[in-house]
Write a sequence for this structure.
């Protein structure tokens, strides 16, 4: 079995690739795990849990049609692919609009139902969507929205990217930057919600919910990313509704629903991410190996048992040896003076 895993960035806003490799190694110790990355500056390429590395050119320099043909040949040849980045998952859905048996990533119809800010697919879940306004509105209306919410607002892209904007000057600067990233002015402002941060992570294959877990963020980084958390079962009422939604949108792959639980107990859905989160191995530590469930469903090969170690997890910083084929980049020239 060969599994290609993308999303190896391991900096302050990490991607799930390293966690995916750790979880799959427990379940399939003899599998060949291939790390896929688009930058030789990503420290995750040096993770020893990958048997092979597939280093590509930066995304903006790729010949995407040719790259799509390469991936098609890999999948047709029996390899599996788990996408760990939003941008790649969106592109793969355009290459395989109806999915592929070995592509463990959502099809186009599923992605169309999780577009922010409305996240159509959430209907039926006990979740609310925070107030929002499209940047298609006039600057006068946008300024009024910001004032109404006392400048406690976020500017967001249609699928990912969210920046807190506390002034009009900051809003204009961020709007310009995000418009370049997405090649569109169709962004949106959303009101900030105070409360406890929670997530539900799931794995599904061809519309069947394979498993899901709930996680409360207990420690955060300065960027608001998970550093530590506790993992529990998803309440059955929530899971039952989620199961129907997954079937309706024919979801395949991992996903994360990011939420805020306010002081009154109401949960607000912020995002539905189309891939596993970076804390994916935290759930495996708690005994719920969702990547293994996904691979087992796709291949029919039984996964080895995952033993629960703790309901809580935290992160540490590790030093690892650099791969000889990919030495560190040279030092930059010092600035004059």
């Amino acid at each position: 079995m060969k599994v290609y895993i993308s999303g190896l960035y391991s900096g302050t806003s990490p991607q799930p690739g390293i966690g995916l490799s750790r979880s799959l190694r427990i379940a399939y110790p003899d599998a060949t795990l291939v790390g896929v990355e688009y930058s030789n500056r990503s420290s995750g390429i040096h993770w020893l849990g990958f048997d092979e590395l597939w280093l590509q050119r930066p995304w903006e320099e790729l010949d995407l049609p040719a790259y799509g043909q390469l991936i098609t040949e890999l999948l047709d040849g029996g390899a599996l692919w788990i996408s760990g980045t939003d941008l790649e998952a969106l592109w793969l859905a355009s290459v395989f609009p109806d999915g592929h048996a070995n592509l463990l990533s959502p099809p186009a119809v599923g992605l169309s139902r999780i577009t922010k800010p409305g996240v159509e697919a959430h209907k039926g879940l006990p979740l609310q969507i925070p107030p929002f306004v499209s940047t298609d509105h006039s600057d006068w209306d946008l300024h009024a929205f910001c004032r109404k919410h006392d400048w406690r607002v976020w500017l967001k892209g249609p699928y990912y990217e969210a920046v807190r904007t506390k002034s009009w000057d900051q809003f204009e600067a961020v709007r310009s930057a995000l418009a370049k990233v997405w090649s569109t002015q169709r962004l949106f402002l959303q009101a900030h919600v105070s409360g406890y941060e929670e997530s539900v992570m799931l794995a599904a294959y061809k519309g069947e919910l394979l498993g899901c877990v709930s996680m409360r963020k207990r420690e955060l980084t300065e960027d608001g990313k998970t550093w530590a958390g506790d993992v529990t079962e998803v309440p059955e009422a929530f899971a039952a509704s989620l199961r129907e939604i997954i079937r309706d949108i024919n979801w395949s792959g991992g996903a994360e629903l990011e939420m805020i639980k306010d002081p009154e107990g109401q949960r607000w859905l912020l995002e539905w991410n189309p891939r596993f989160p970076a804390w994916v191995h935290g759930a495996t530590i708690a005994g719920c190996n969702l990547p293994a469930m996904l691979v087992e469903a796709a291949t029919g090969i039984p996964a080895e048992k995952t033993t629960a170690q703790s309901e809580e997890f935290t992160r540490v910083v590790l030093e690892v040896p650099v791969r000889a084929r990919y030495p560190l980049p040279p030092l930059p020239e010092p600035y004059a003076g």
Q: What stands out?
A: The chain has two domains: 2-119+195-314, 132-191.
